[in-house]
Amino acid sequence: MALSMEKAIESLYEAKKYQTLRDILSSQNEADIASFFSGVKEEALPVLFRLLPKDLAADTFALMEPEDRELLIHGFSDSELKEVIDELYVDDAVDIVDEMPANVVKRILKNADPEKRQMINEILKYPEDSAGSLMTVEYISLRPKMTVSDAIKRIRRKVHETETIYTCYVTDDNRRLLGYISVRTLLLAGEKEKIEDLMDTPVCVNTLDDKEDVAKKMNKYDFVAMPVVDDEMRLVGIVTFDDAIDVLQEETTEDIEIMAAMAPAEESYFKTSDLKHARNRIVWLLVLMLSATLTGSILAYYESAFESVPILVSFIPMLMGTGGNCGSQSSTMIIRGMSVDEIQLKDFFKVVWMEFRISLILSFSLAIVNGLRILVFYRDVTLAVVISLSIIGTVIMAELIGCMLPMIAKKCRLDPAVMAAPIITTVVDALCIVLYFNIALKFFNI
Amino acid sequence: MALSMEKAIESLYEAKKYQTLRDILSSQNEADIASFFSGVKEEALPVLFRLLPKDLAADTFALMEPEDRELLIHGFSDSELKEVIDELYVDDAVDIVDEMPANVVKRILKNADPEKRQMINEILKYPEDSAGSLMTVEYISLRPKMTVSDAIKRIRRKVHETETIYTCYVTDDNRRLLGYISVRTLLLAGEKEKIEDLMDTPVCVNTLDDKEDVAKKMNKYDFVAMPVVDDEMRLVGIVTFDDAIDVLQEETTEDIEIMAAMAPAEESYFKTSDLKHARNRIVWLLVLMLSATLTGSILAYYESAFESVPILVSFIPMLMGTGGNCGSQSSTMIIRGMSVDEIQLKDFFKVVWMEFRISLILSFSLAIVNGLRILVFYRDVTLAVVISLSIIGTVIMAELIGCMLPMIAKKCRLDPAVMAAPIITTVVDALCIVLYFNIALKFFNI
Fold first, then answer.
1. Is the model's pLDDT at B1 over the cut of 60?
2. Does B327 contact chain A (CB < 8 Å)?
3. How far apart are CA B320 and CA B328, in angstroms?
4. In B120-273, where do the E strands start and end?
5. From the CA of B235, how many Å to the nearest CA of chain A?
6. Other beta carbons less than 10 A from residue A365's beta carbon
7. How far is B372 from chain A, CA to nearest CA, in Å?
8. B262, A333: Cβ pair inside 8 Å?
9. Which of B368, B374, B51, B445 is nearest to A293 (CA)?
10. Does the distance separating the beta carbons of A274 and B325 come in below 8 Å?
11. Could you give the strand order of the β-sheet that contains A225-229, starting from the edge strand earlier in sequence?
12. How many CA atoms, within 13 angstroms, populate the side-chain half-sphere of residue B68?
């Protein structure tokens, strides 16, 4: 919806031309309406929302911002609330229940019809981040002995209450998953053919599987929906692709935040309070600050060295910076590689050997550039040798630490993303200072 | 496919039990077969591949690793190659053509049937990273005056040659996009209803739109497929959700690599040569190393200060480290926020003001902890004041630079991800040294 359209709606609202407004809104896509609603005045929102046809209202409601939804729910009569909730797909209803304050949840559950309430409660009992918590319990199940025309009849009957109809699941009398079949296959097959002859072997996940693994598996198989089964292989729900994409995006954001030494935010940037932002950042800042004082003490220990050759101090930022950058480059490659499953733990030695070879190329190139620069500017061969050797040592060490720490973290069942730039840099800083001054002490005979 | 299954297949292969092998492989999912094939011996691959039924062979081929595919193509007779290519969907064929060496491409195009060849060439002419390069030209189009039963007949006729059938596109006589309709809507509607009365207003992208924007738009609308139109609104193809997910993942990996000061890799970690890895990393390392020497020169300028109060040197790692970490935290939040469209350029002052408030909380907390630590360990009030003031200044400066630079980069149409930790750190390092020694000079009367 372009900007001019928003202005038009606003002036129609001011002029109370509700019939025209209803016609305009009805022709729009729910995602556009939802984002338009987030910019609308508080008092206009309930009026505009009530203008939407029932179906579109529910679809829009599912896509709106949580606070807009809460605002609407507070203004709803019980019968209005019931109408919206009953139109929602169960997985969307669960998302909404999840984010609302307790008193609103009570009202929602009280006003949902009993069948829907039971489905919502069913999903709410699964642990956060599990496949069960992400799934919807509305899907189309078929029996193996059905004919194609039976199946199509069943789909037509179920289509209005199911989010994803294009893959149907074949189950036995005990709800055990036997296979899946797409509407595409049904359309290609003869009317009399049996489902059991057409269905594919099931690919599925368990209710307790981690939702990130579920999303990755769906991506691997290019599935629009993934069946979720319990320990007895009984089908309990499906995860749809739109939720899988959101999971992939959220998990990546979380990784990126952890890699920058922050606790992952639960809400979007602007919705998080200053204090919450600060709390997400302060823990690691404190830890890293205190660790850096260790580097400081090491530096103090070599006071005699830079008292006799003060110029040594001026190379510290360059050495520490280069070490930190090398370490963060290699740790980033490894963390991302593991997160998209390109790098496995069994590749440990292969990775270390590869990073070692890369570090040789990098360290000698950087050492040569720096050595020449020092020869030209300072005309001091000893200084050039000391700095070049320190660079070589620092870069090799940084690359190796950068690639090993994330893999070791994973081995210890920690999140590899923790071992990213900030920690690597702090470790490398300390070691780099020790290396640098030991080389300097040797060559300058201090 | 579990490990035991792989062993079983290998021994069946050694024993030349091809019929059993064919039965086993036919029952498997194409994604599993493709990943199994990537671990198989070179000489076994063509044999195993030829055992697959035609459909499954093409589906598997589309999912295999590029080098496995090249191996197979080299061994194919022209008629075998033709068979595989003709079974592939056009967008998969284009991906394969894109990654093959020129001589293989020639063979593929020569052996594709003329219609498919034309479709492949059609897509190849669009710029890399455009919606056109990502789309497939196989989709189902309907006319507005068709009835539902006409439409279903047409879908049945087209289903075998189209990747995505569940959304159909309504076009006029000049191929202009008028709307879209899902198979779900068709199944719910009466047989005699007209398509034009059932279809939804089209949401579409232009052939030249950036593929990342296309993927984000699909995610916003939860579309399984997105229609691609030319400047005259003529429908030329569709982008399917599996390709959109891959784009989102690739773009994120690229962002993360750029944020760690690397040129984005074109291939996966292990497929990139040492030299290529080194080349991707060295440019920024050199730039940042030389920039850090500037910080070194600034440090040298304050030689007199740390000659009279040598303990000052030992706080440099802590100050530079903390500044770098604060800057990388805020730049990471802003870069990711912009990349998932949570933060817009128009929010510039809102963001700066928010980061300023956060930096006040962070800087005072860190300053107090550090000030107390210094009082306890060194019993030196002046030193405690100097370090605390320097921390406050550094943190506030780092947070502001960290949030502003990525937004300024975006304003200048540069990739905001460039303005991440490494550059921010280098800038903050230099400014932090100036600040620190100026405060120290004042308080110690040097």
1. no
2. no
3. 12
4. 141-142, 167-171, 177-182, 205-206, 225-229, 235-240
5. 19
6. 16
7. 12
8. yes
9. B374
10. no
11. A205-206, A225-229, A235-240
12. 21
Specify whether the CB–CB gap between A253 and A242 falls below 8 A: no
CB contact under 8 A, B326 and A253: no
Q: List pLDDT tens digits, range A286-316.
A: 888 888 888 888 888 888 888 888 888 889 8
Give the Å distances, CA to CA, from B321 to A147, B150, B356, B428. Answer: 69, 69, 19, 10
Q: What letter represents residue A267's amino acid?
A: E
* Sign of the four-CA dihedral B369, B371, B374, B376: negative
Asked if residue A30 has pLDDT above 90, the reply is: no
Token pair in block for residue B160 = 């075998």
Q: pLDDT digit string (tens) for B271-314?
A: 888 888 888 888 888 888 888 888 888 888 888 888 888 888 88
Q: Which residues does A400 contact at the CB level (< 8 Å), separation at least 6?
A: A352, A355, A356, A359
Average pLDDT over residues A316-322: 90
Q: Does A310 touch chain B (CB under 8 A)?
A: yes
DSSP A285: H
Q: Which chain A residues are within 8 Å of B188, Cβ to Cβ?
A: 156, 159-160
Please state the pTM of the whole predicted model: 0.76
Percent of chain B with pLDDT over 90: 26
- Strands (DSSP E) along A141-224, which ranges? 141-142, 167-171, 177-182, 205-206
**CB contact set of B89 (below 8 Å; sequence gap of 6+):** B62, B136, B138, B163
The answer to whether A282 and A290 are in contact (CB under 8 A) is: no
Per CB-CB distance under 8 Å, the chain B contacts of A260 are 328-329, 332-333, 421
Nearest C-alpha of chain B: how many angstroms from A326?
Answer: 7
The residue type at B36: F
Over chain A, what is the mean pLDDT? 86
User: Which of A423, A397, A257, A425 is CA-nearest to residue B422?
Assistant: A425
Helices and strands counted in chain B (H then E): 22, 6
* Nearest alpha carbon to residue A105 among A117, A119, A123: A117
**Quick one: A37 exposed, middle or buried, by C-beta within 10 A (0-12, 13-18, 19+)?**
buried
The verdict on a CB contact (< 8 Å) between B242 and A252 is no
User: Would the CA dihedral through A72, A77, A80, A82 be positive or negative?
Assistant: positive
What is the amino acid identity at position A113? D
Q: Which of B91, B156, B333 to mutate to test the interface with A (most CBs of A within 10 A)?
A: B333
Is the ipTM higher than 0.90? The answer is no
**Cα separation, B11 vs A138, whole angstroms:** 43
3-class DSSP state of A228: strand
Give burial (CB, 10 Å; 0-12/13-18/19+) of A23: exposed
